[in-house]
Specification:
This protein has 247 residues and is an alpha/beta fold. Helix content is 37%, strand content 21%. A 7-stranded mixed β-sheet has the order 3-2-1-4-5-7-6, sandwiched between helices. Keywords: Methyltransferase, Transferase.
Length: 247
């Protein structure tokens, strides 16, 4: 039986979850977001395996090469050349996407909003890393119209709708003219019969669907146009990476 503090924490988290807030100890104990893996264990596993963290995590999720494929697809559609002054990532986690973006775009500043405190010391070592205070729903320390690329991967699929919507507002706010927003969500195009049945049978309550049409319309009203998409594997199904550019 779980200890009393754990029971209390789980109860509090059930109440706070719709607000995009949680009580954590080291890493999340909330059953709704267990896919976020603890830094110490993942880094140790990658060292033992003698492989980069992104390769270790891809193998862990039975999707070898998925990180590189998604990052390359995003960079190709973003078409930012070989230089971006400022990049912002929501939920950088292990830094597996950050390292590829930094290598490709050589940003002067790479802003990171990460709520998992155990990963933050590791992320500080990335070239140009600027660790922001993450409140779990805004980019409040990033200036309006200051960012060339705002991106997020394997984050919005786990968040309540209102938190995802808030982040989309914020991504649109911080982009400069010509800037790019990229993120993946579970859209209606991801949910074929096989995927839906599998998630129902396995009670995959951690995932949330967001209408692709709604996302495109929301960002269009804020001056962003969809330039492309890319499907990525997600634990028995798919998620869709959407890439937008500010007009």
């Amino acid at each position: 039986m779980p200890a009393l503090p754990a029971l209390v924490r789980d109860g509090v988290n059930r109440v706070l979850r719709p607000l995009g807030v949680q009580v954590v100890r080291g890493h999340s104990d909330d059953p709704a977001i267990r896919p976020f893996l603890p830094a110490r264990r993942i880094l140790a596993g990658a060292r033992r395996a003698g492989v980069p963290v992104e390769d270790y995590l891809d193998a862990y999720s039975a999707a070898p090469g998925a990180t590189a494929e998604a990052a390359n697809a995003m960079l190709r559609m973003a078409d930012l050349g070989e230089k971006a002054d400022r990049v912002c990532e929501i939920g950088a986690g292990s830094g597996r996407y950050a390292r590829r973006v930094i290598s490709a775009l050589n940003p002067e500043a790479y802003e990171i909003y990460e709520t998992a405190s155990d990963w933050v010391p590791y992320l500080r070592g990335l070239p140009g890393a600027v660790i922001r205070d993450a409140d779990g729903h805004t980019l409040r320390q990033t200036e309006t119209g200051s960012v060339d690329l705002a991106h997020s991967h394997k984050v919005f699929v786990y968040l309540p709708f209102v938190v995802t919507a808030g982040y989309l507002y914020e991504m649109a706010r911080v982009l400069r003219p010509g800037g790019v927003a990229a993120f993946d969500v579970v859209t209606e195009d991801c949910l074929d019969e096989e995927t839906t049945r599998g998630w129902v049978e396995h009670n995959a309550v951690i995932y949330g669907m967001v209408s692709r049409h709604w996302v495109v319309d929301l960002l269009a009203r804020r001056g962003l146009s969809l330039v492309g998409s890319h499907f990525e594997p997600l634990s028995g199904g798919w998620t869709e990476l959407l890439v937008f550019v500010r007009n």
